[in-house]
Design goal:
The strands form two sheets. Strands 3, 4, 5, 8, 9, 10, 11, 12 and 13 form a nine-stranded mixed β-sheet that branches. This protein has a six-stranded mixed β-sheet with strand order 6-2-1-7-15-14, covered by helices on one side. 25% of the residues lie in helices and 30% in strands. The protein has a single domain, classed as D-Amino Acid Oxidase, Chain A, domain 2. β1, α1 and β2 form a beta-alpha-beta unit. The protein is globular, with a radius of gyration of 21 Å. By secondary structure, the protein is an alpha/beta fold. It is built from six helices and 15 strands.
Length: 347
């Protein structure tokens, strides 16, 4: 019997954990190497900061659309299971001005209970709106669930700070999967100057009575959203600050977020004033954005001792990490299977 191919995954964010789990369950012997793990808080560890709602985005690339749809179907199935932190709820998306996108193509036939909202169901000064049933993810619970699934399937973990791709190239390792996220910009052997941070600030409140998600996209680019979690917390956001590395929550931004969210969702106050909103914490995260989109490809590199190492890159997901995680992981699996077949054919 041939030995299992060994894979080292760099990074334990949602993309790294999902990729490691998919590969481990498909016959590979996987180790995830990362400095930060579920339960840790660091500005260099983006996944715990995410709002994590499945709200589809319009992509002009059929590959992206496929990746997104695979992820939605998987997360929908996970919402049937206990302890995943994934739940279903109604989602209402409003646009201040008609976005003139093909919503029928983007939503209908894939997302459950999709409707274009009639004018009389739209908030004041809103031109267009849709609704459908979506999933939201309680991030701390979900990340721990992914990790537990990975280790239960036989996956191995290593807590370590790596400085270079070569640091993950161990004897008998066949593939290295690069899921370094925002760190890909300065990670040795990658140094991808196309990667940049898009700062996001959110306010987390306790509002277990909110059982639906809402968002509003304004013409000037302002994006307001309300995302409930299974535990009763609600994520209020947000911001999209390109190339902003500031890690400190800004009080004026927090005040703006609260006012925008209460205007969009008056139910937050339960007919009381702003002071009745129970604020739990303020959070800042750096989305791993990348010019040109996700880098999802393989390459062969010769390391310092003359060995050819197969690298699969899977990073640059911007704010789509949870939305794209399962589809990206399966795409990575297909890529390394293809490389493996080509390699075996040459032998």
């Amino acid at each position: 019997m041939s030995r299992k191919n060994r894979v080292n995954v760099i990074g334990a964010g949602v993309v790294g954990l999902t990729t490691g789990l998919v590969l481990q369950k498909n016959g590979y012997k996987v180790k995830i190497i990362a400095e930060h793990w579920p339960g840790d808080l660091s500005i260099n560890y983006t996944s715990p900061c995410a709002g994590a709602i499945f709200s589809p985005h319009e992509f002009f690339d059929e590959r992206y659309e496929k990746i997104q749809n695979v992820s939605y179907k998987t997360l929908w199935e996970l919402s049937n299971m206990n302890d995943t932190g994934v739940i279903r709820l109604p989602n209402f998306i409003f646009y201040e001005k008609d976005p003139h996108i093909d919503v029928e193509k983007l939503f209908k036939g894939v997302y459950h209970e999709f409707h274009i909202l009639p004018k009389n169901e739209l908030p004041k000064n809103v031109d267009y709106g849709i609704s459908f049933t979506t999933v939201t993810i309680d991030v701390p619970i979900y990340l721990r669930w992914l990790l537990n699934q990975f280790t239960s399937a036989g996956g191995v973990t290593q807590k370590a700070h790596l400085n270079h791709l070569n640091d993950a190239d161990e004897p008998n390792v066949d593939f290295v999967i690069n899921c370094t996220g925002i760190n890909a910009r300065n990670f040795g052997g990658v140094d991808d100057d196309k990667v940049f941070p898009t700062r996001g600030q959110i306010v987390v409140v306790s509002a277990p009575h909110i059982k639906f998600a809402k968002s509003l996209q304004e013409e000037d680019g302002t994006y307001t959203y309300i995302i409930p979690r299974e535990c009763g917390e609600v994520i209020l956001g947000g911001t999209m600050d390109v190339n902003n590395y500031d890690t400190t929550p800004d009080p004026k931004t927090a005040e703006s977020i609260l006012n925008r969210c209460i205007k969009l969702c008056p139910e937050l106050t339960q007919d009381k004033d702003l002071s009745s909103v129970h604020i739990l914490r303020h959070v800042v995260g750096l989305r791993p954005s990348r010019k040109g989109g996700i880098r999802l490809e393989t390459e062969v590199r010769r390391n310092s001792v003359g060995k050819d190492v197969i690298i699969c890159h899977n990073y640059g997901h911007h704010s789509y990490g949870y939305i794209m995680s399962w589809g990206s992981a399966i795409e990575a699996l297909e890529l390394i299977k293809s490389v493996k077949s080509q390699k075996e054919a040459r032998l």
